[in-house]
Each structure stands twice: as structure tokens, then as C-alpha cells.
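Following up on my earlier thread - several people asked me to post the actual chain instead of describing it. Fair enough. Here it is, all 291 residues.
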Amino acid sequence: MKRAAVLAAVAVVLLAACGGGGGAKKTAASGSTTSSVDTSTTVPGSSTTAAAGAGVATTTKTTAKAAAPGGGAKVNGQPANNYTPPAGATPAKPAVPGTYTEDNQATGTNTFGAPPPKSPLVVDPPNGTRQHSTSDTRSGGKGAVTETTFDYKPEGVYLVEIKVTNYSGSGFNQTIDFVGNPPPLAAPTGVKPGQSVDFDLSSNPPGTNIHVHVDFVRNETITIGGQPVDTIVIHQVGTLSGQVTGRQTQDAWVSTQYDMFVKSHSVGDVTAYGVHAQSDVTSTLEKLTPG
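Reply from S.P.:
Thanks for posting it. Predicted structure:
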């Protein structure tokens, strides 16, 4: 049971790794948007985990240090602490606080069960430059609660912490905490299609590491709640090592106005302690405002 819970907890991490409560701002010269084509371009043979958004509606005390420039991350293959936003780029800002609703659709194999058709995403008011958000994808007492903390700086958004608690429904709950030490620059200000980011996260308690590679793919306009939304499409690949191994992939549509993930398709294929798990979930915000 413990092995399965650890695996299920890791399986929800990547979706929160670059979004949930915030995203990347494009520059005015980053190109025109296109009409929406509802496709997910998952890399063949790679995978990601399933679950949507970011964790429980309570503020957590992070174990990570204050954000430092770069945080060991790389932007376009260069150290992130050398990154300078392009002229005219607008930094991302914390999302509007409140409770949002995500529609979830599970396809393919979901070893530990599918998330509920609808789940809450709770975004807390900012605390200084940081913002904590929470996604609860439990169904019938089982599933994951994921808490994410971002730090919004002029040069971009830093990932401070992802804390995942998996509820088994039988009284055994497993929590795993992923932190960057120092927090990595996950979403540079003014990022454009064709650029990329790399960063690493380690688990607390120790034992599992994730290397995340993010490609910023294209600009695209999609419809959310009947409203057209300009987005930048990102493709993430997470490579897991240590007690948990495997690959996770995700395609996500990040609003360039509201600084939130508005849609994501996540696929996962991971192994922990000899237990193999797969997942495939698409999550979409019902509307762009809370309530």
C-alpha cells in the first residue's frame, strides 16, 4: 500500500510544475495566435501523470529557501541567472484568488483510478510575491491533493514547492514534498515559442528526483467558458530517477492574460518499488474567473 501511495503521489507532480497559479508572459512581438485545434502533442514513447492543478485549500509552510536568481535552472541551455527579459516584456502576476472548477476527462489506462469529472482549484491571496494554490482531485475519499507555491519576480516565475498528499481511502495517507533548493526559474518573463527551460526538483523525504524539460511550442487561441483566450502552448517532459523511475509528459495551454493553466493533457508511465502505474487525463478550466 505504501509503495502504491508513493507512486500515485509522484504521478501528479508534473502538472503543477510550471502552472496552476501562474504562467509565462509573451512579448508583444512573440507572434500571432492561431485558431484553436483541440490536439495534444504528446511525444510518442514518453509519459506523464494525471491529475489536475495544484492542492488543498490551506496554506503550507514551505521548507524551501527564498528564491534566488536562476535556482540552478537553465533557459535556452544557459544558466537562468544570466537571463534578461526582452524589452517590453510584462512579468506574470499572481492569479485572481478564489475557487475555480476544472473539468477532468480520463482516457486510456489510469492505474490508480480516474479523477472526478469536476474538481476544485483553490488559489489563495498572494503573500508578498508568493502565491499558494491547491487542487483536490479526490473521488470517494481516494486521490490526490496537491499544493503548489510560486514566487513572482520581474525576471519570471520561480517554483518554490509542490506538496502532494495521496489519500488511499483506507486511512493510510502518503505525503511527498518536492522542492527546488534554491527554487528554479520555471517560467521566464517574455518567453517565446522556440525557447526552453530545464530544472530539477528533489523529494522530501529524499529518494526521488525529477528533471523537467519545458519547450514553449506555439501561440494559440482556444475557447474557455465561451470566451476566446490567447495562450502559449508548452510541452513538458519529466524524467524521474531514484525510488521512482519513468517519464511524464504534459501539453498545457497557459493564458497569457490571466497567467493560469487553462487546459492540460497529461500522460504518465512510472514505476516505484516494482509497482507500475499509468495515467492519461485532460483537464480544462470551466471559466476564467473564480466562483
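The chain has one domain: 2-285. That should answer part of your original question.
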